[in-house]
Amino acid sequence: MSHRPLLLTGALLAFLPILLANLSVGTEAIALGDVIGAIARFSPESYDDYVVIFQRLPRALIAIYAGAAMACSGLVLQGLTRNPLASPSTLGINAGATGFVISGAYLFDLGLEAQGLAALIGALTGFLASMLVARLAGLSHDPRGLALILAGALISMFFIGLANAFLLSDPARRMDFLGWVSGNINHVYANRLWRFWWIGLVALGLLQALARPLTLIALGEGKAASVGVDVTLVSRLALTATALAAGSAVAICGPIGFIGLVVPHLVRPFFGVGLGLGLPACAITGAALCLLADLAARQLFQPYVLNTGVLMDLLGGIVFALIVKRFYLTAARSRA
Fold first, then answer.
1. Who's near 300: CB < 8 A, 6+ residues apart?
2. Which of 176, 203, 226, 243 has CB atoms 3.0–4.6 Å from 123's, for a disulfide?
3. Rounded distance, CA 148 to CA 130, Å?
4. Domain of residue 308, CATH code
5. What share of the chain is helix, strand, coil (3-state, %, to 5)?
6. Sequence-separated (6 or more) residues with CB below 8 Å from residue 158
7. Which tens digit of pLDDT belongs to each residue from 232-271?
8. Which residues constitute the domain of residue 54?
9. pLDDT at 244
10. What average pLDDT does the chain have?
């Protein structure tokens, strides 16, 4: 147990060079000393300082926010549902937020703040719809939890199809959302970050405050109830917080899929099922992974820039298949 705080400190120390690399590497590389200097003593006469402060730093902060929010949401969802495939991208949260933002913008010409509210409502709606469909499909009689994942896929297809229908209906407005809808970490969304960052901070703070009872619930609802945990209240608060955290990230830069699926599996072998250290570890790892994905999306396909969400979907699909093989196919063969 005593080595886990040291691991968390090591993860934080490893995160710092990743952040500096993200700020340094671009169309034109900027020396690390100049990056640090731009942050410490910004000079409006310096072009490099301008690029760091007004382009690369906002983009890095968006990546950190989205990665941390998605990763922590995935950890909590997997713990509460006891399903290794649970994440904001597989339970309709991301798709619901996306569908509501696009629909609201097209039908009601929602402004920026109203789009943020639509994303939060859509995230909650997408998750609740997935749970409802799963229950109707017989979730209680499905010990492996496949009904929940299939329900999430169904709801996600519905909301993404709805969003695409609106995008196709008005080509003149399509460009306003075409990048955002595929998960675009870009400094042009800095104004969205400044308006919505506090939502994720409050949600993640609530999850951290509930870390101990959530850990007990993940170990077994009966055990948690026996030590005085209000399982229903804690679960509802945590699920609402996860939807709001992920929904706020979608409101900023669009859906960044599969970080919420992958990162908990990377963190859990080192930090166990406890959320006290698991949540900070997921936040750091998710932020670092999103920074690396953003860097790869910008550098690997030059002179073109790939949206970070597209790259994460490509990599996430491979990891999704590996998780299915490990937890479902291999487990089924071993039981046979």
1. 306
2. 243
3. 7
4. 1.10.3470.10
5. 80, 0, 20
6. 95, 99
7. 999 999 999 999 999 999 999 999 988 999 999 999 999 9
8. 3-335
9. 97
10. 91
